[in-house]
Every structure is written in C-alpha cells, then in structure tokens.
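Re: export button greyed out
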Amino acid sequence: MRTDLATMLMLAEPRVDVGTVGSEVAPAPAVSSTRTATRILTADVGWNRDLARLLHRDFDDLHQRSHEVEWRTLAADRARSSTAALLDELAAMGFAWRDVARLVGVSVPAVQKWRRGEGATGENRARLARLLAACDLISEHYLVEDLATWFEVPLVVGVPVTPLDLYAAEHVDLVFEHAIGNVDPERLLGAFDPDWREHYRSEFEVFRAEDGALSLRPRDQR
Amino acid sequence: MSHDLETPPGGPGRWAEQLYRARGAAIPHWRPVFTGDVFEEVPVTTSSGIAAGRTVIVLQHPCAMRTDGVNLATRLLVSEVRHHRVLAPEEWCGFTKLMSLPDLNSGETSRKRHQAVMFDRLKVVDSAALDVGRRLACLTHVGVNLLLQRRVHYDTRVVVPTHDIQAVTGGVYEEADIIEDWCEAASLAGIEVSVATDDCVTWLREDLGDGLTRQQMLEDQQNRSGIRRAARAETVKRYGST
Amino acid sequence: MTAMSDRELYPNASVVLVAFELRHPASGPLSSAAVARAKKVLAPDLPLLRQASLTTIRATSGAPPEISSEQVPKFTSRDLTTAVTFGAESVVVETTAYDRYERLRAIVALALEARATAEPIDGMERLGLRYIDEIRIPDTVSVDETWADWVDGSLLGPAPMGSRLGLLAAEWQGLVRFDAGPGRSIVLRYGPREGYAVDPGGDLKRPMADSGPFFLLDIDSFWTPTGEIPEFDSGRILAVVDELHAPVSQLFETLITERLRSEVLRNED
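Workaround output, generated via the alternate export path:
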C-alpha cells in the first residue's frame, strides 16, 4: 500500500548528515498529508528535505546512465525474436501501423510486407527490437500501463508534440525523461524545438458544429 | 511569428516518405477511399466540353465523403493533377494555386515523375468512377493536412496551421486506418470488402451507453489505441487469426 | 465560525494552491470507455484531458529507493488553473486560481459525479482539504524587517529568543497536528522558505512571483473513518468537506497580522 512521502523517506538508508549521533535518535513520527497531483517542493520537517533533494539528484544521474545500458541490453534480447513476433506484440499494445512505420523509419507498405511474412533487413529488425525494448523499459520502471496511448498523448496540453514525435526524431533521451515524470515537460519541448511556443501558437479553436462534426473557428480574442 | 503556408517536413529528400502513405501497387485495394487519394483515368468533362480521362485528387473533406459512413457520396469534389516541377522549400509559401506532389510517379524518369494538384481545375466526378485499381497514391496524415491547408487558403486566403487541421481530422483518419486493417483481416478470410467495411462501420457506431460510440471516441487521441486493440480482437473473433 | 458570506476576499491573496483529495480502496486504472464517460460530465468546465504521472518514491532500509509512476487521466480547465485527476486510489481536485470556497466545492461535486459515472468506488478511506499559502513581502519593505511583523509570534518558534542571544535563526520548520474532533485533524506546516512551495513548472499555471523568501502556511484539514470504511456517498463527502473547510480560514486569519492584511493582502497594486 502506498504511504506518504515523509514516511517512505524516513525508512531509507541514510546518505545525509542526520545530525550529531543522529542515527541513535528516533525519527519524528510520520504525519498524514493530503496528496496533490501538483508537485509540492517543501518536504516535511527534519533532514527528510535534504534526503529528498539528494535522492532526486542522484536518481536523475543514475537514471540517465542506467537507461542507456539497460535499453541496449533489452534490445539485444528482443532482437532474438522474429519480425512477425515483434510486430504482433506492437499490435497487441495498440500501436497503429503507420506509427510503427514512422518509429522504425520505414514506409507503411514495408511494414505490411513484413506482416505478410517477407523478411526485414537486419538493421530494420534491430530498430523494431529497440522500439520494443524502449517500451519494456518505460513500462517496467515507470509503470506506464497503456504504452501506445502514452506515446500518442501530447507532453503539454494544447501543443501537439507527443513522445511518438520525440522518438521518431531520435530524441529517445527525451522520451525516457518524460517517462520519469518529474521533468518539466515545457523544458523537454524546448529541447526538442526551441521555438515551440511560436510554432504551435493558434488563433483557432476546435468546436462541435451543428451537424455534430468537429470544426475550427477563430478564437474569441476578447 | 505569423503562420504561413507550410512546407513538408524533413527537406526535399524526404518529402515523398512524408507525403505518401503508399503509392501504386503498394496501396491495398481494401483501403477506403479518402481525402488526398490520387486516381488516374477518371472521366471528367474538360473546359471544352469533351469527356476525357484525367488524373485527379480527392478534395472532399473526410467528414463529407460518405452518406452513411460506408458508401461514398454520389458525386465528389476533386482537382486535376498535372505534371509540374517540384517546388523548392522556399516556394511552398507561394504558388498558392497548386500543391506539389514530388515523385508521385516514382517509376517515371520523364517530366511526368513530378506532379501537382491544380486547385484552379476543380471538377465534380461520379464516385463510382474512382477505380481503386487505378489509385496512384494515398497521402499520409501530414500530406492530407497540407492539402487541406492549401485548398482552404486557395478558396479563402486564410492560412490555417496544419496542427489545427490535425485536431479535426485525426479521428476520421484513424477510422480509415481501422477500416483498412479490419478489411484486410476479413478479405484473408474470404469476406468481400464492401461487406467487411459495413461490418466495421457498424461496430464503430455501436452504442456503448448514453449514445457514446467508438467512432466518437476516436476523436480523442487518448482513446485511439484502446479502440485499435478492440478492433483487432474483434476481427480475430470474427475471422480467426491472420 | 465565520459564515461563508462574511469571509473577506483579498485582492492579493497569498494562497497558491488548494487541493481536495478523496482516497478510496484501489480500483485499478479506468478503462477508455470509463474515462470517456467521465469526460462527458467534466467537459463543460474541464474539457482538456491528458495522461499525467503520479510519482511515488519508496525507500526501504538496506535497499536502494525505487521510483514508481502511474499514468492517470487528468482533466484541466482551458486556462490550466484547475484540474481533476483520477488515480487508482484517489480523486484529486486542485486549483491555483482559488477565490472562494463555493466555487471549489462545485468542482469537487462535479468531480465526484464524474468519477461515479465512470466506474464505482468501493468506499472512502480519507478526505482532505489542503490550503498552501506563500506569504511574500514586497521588495519595498526594509531588509531589517522580520517575519514577526507579518505572522503571529507563535509561528516564530525560538527565533526571537535566539535573537536576544545574538543568534540569527537562519531557517526553521514547524508542524502541528490539531485534533479537530472524531476522525478529524488539522495539520499546520509552517516556516520561512526560499523559492516556491508549489512547482511553477507544473501542469497548472500558478500565480507568478519572483523566486525568493516567503513564509509557508500549509493547512491540511482531513478526516479518516474511525470505524469501518463507509460506502462512497458524494452527499456525505460534501458535508464532511464543508466541516473540514470551516476552521481553515479562521486558523489562517489568526496566524497573520493586521499589517499583512492591510499592506499586502488588501493591496491591489
């Protein structure tokens, strides 16, 4: 069962200065707190704040390095499967064939040929394996259950840049950072496209017209 | 920065892969006819009143192509497609009466290789005359959005960014992909494409409660992968594994 | 208790985030159809839907800590100041544009209706209402001023005593849990801080302020069942939330000085 952050941190192996003879001192009792989806930057009393900061920083570095190693290892493992098996798994997750084609860097007809049993080159099979390995890593570590949806949802509301776009542009590092979830998505967008605010500024809004279809109209400028 | 007519992403060397989902023999015949499909030898009446076969591209908005979700409207709006040199990247914000279709005829080495949509050569054709066996190209979603952007601008002189157009065409494009996958599975089981299309549309329009349908849910990108999975499972149930 | 209509609304209020949380027995992630049903209910006020990450750090003695994250649907207003998030074990309603309790209550009621429409919830394990204030003093105030002019002396701890001994209190953090009746508590976290209490880079747009010193007042009023876990009942939830809210503003008003009220909170500049 999930418990509050304060309680969880106090159980950690201390890597900070817990004060003079600190390890002999009983920690303050845990206090229940109303949880928010927004990140609160002020941790609870005592040395937990420093520990939280240290944990976050250590984890950022650790995750960056370990991701690359783990991704390569998982990809090598995945590459043992046949092209058909790799494609079946992507279909079972709910990926669209056009997105698989884009993520692997081939045409939709190429993917359709593979599905009919024609072989893929070694390089293309390796790319399929790397895609599945990235999915494995994200789902195992960050408990993302519906990966295909996760890949299709924009990083920031109102800006149509998705993890699919990052991956297709070979910014897999940004995909992993987004999966971690504690990085400002606007910073990730800036790393992907420094002019994103201008590129995706919109004077139109979507609305449902009288006939029930989605339509566009100029935004109300008032 | 004000918005302008957009260039396909990736540079001239990548435009063909960005614009075309498939060309020529690579287009499965069970893919439903959609905005941006290019057909050859379609009977049209020329400006001099003569009937002739022309290459055309479907301009009708995806939401307005079918009367019942399955059958094409009797008449469809198209534009002629003619040979034209490829526009340079900086030229895409001009040349407003056309849209370049580079490498449309990738097998050609003559000037027929590159074509362009001519917005000033609009026609209305019988949809029955659009023979899927003579379909030259299907566009990607990027290609469809660019086509609609340029067409709207030609008609109204208003530039609508393609990311805005994407927001209203995403669901319908997804529907076409789902129908294509469904019909592929069905045709491998010996079911006719028209019957399979009908089955798929009926399934998409099934009332899930409070008038909500899978077709409506496709409008929201967060629902799409779930519906794809469900569609694939449904085809396995009906037609067996492929 | 101060009646809702009698409470003063400050033009330059210090509240930066107000959150409501219902914790319930684990129900698993919502299906696409369930999310679509919830979206229909929330669409008029919170039309934007995205997947958000709820991150947990779990640390156990002798083992490296683990970070885990669940992807959950989050519905936000168009101005990105209000959001409703449905986790596997919680419903969270938050706003960074709080002006009156009645408006938040209406969103909580809508969130409960949407959640119940999506899929049933089996019980109520905790209800919480949390107000986070960042009290900031204008730059025009002299650097010699202390927090004693702006917040009640009880929040300063031994700092004044240290000052008499020539010891400058560089930082302090306080936590008090008040017993507010059967099953009810109010936790007050307080103390001077730097930067922000609420992440300015989060999903919700918050009132902007320069990063710098502020005094934190974090008032968390919550209820947990004293006996069995009761059934989900949105009417009962709203009644409990009204009770949780009632002492909060009185506590806040008691903890600030009249000078803060007149020179900062009522200042429209």
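Residues 38 and 196 of chain A are 24 Å apart (CA to CA). The button fix ships in the next patch.
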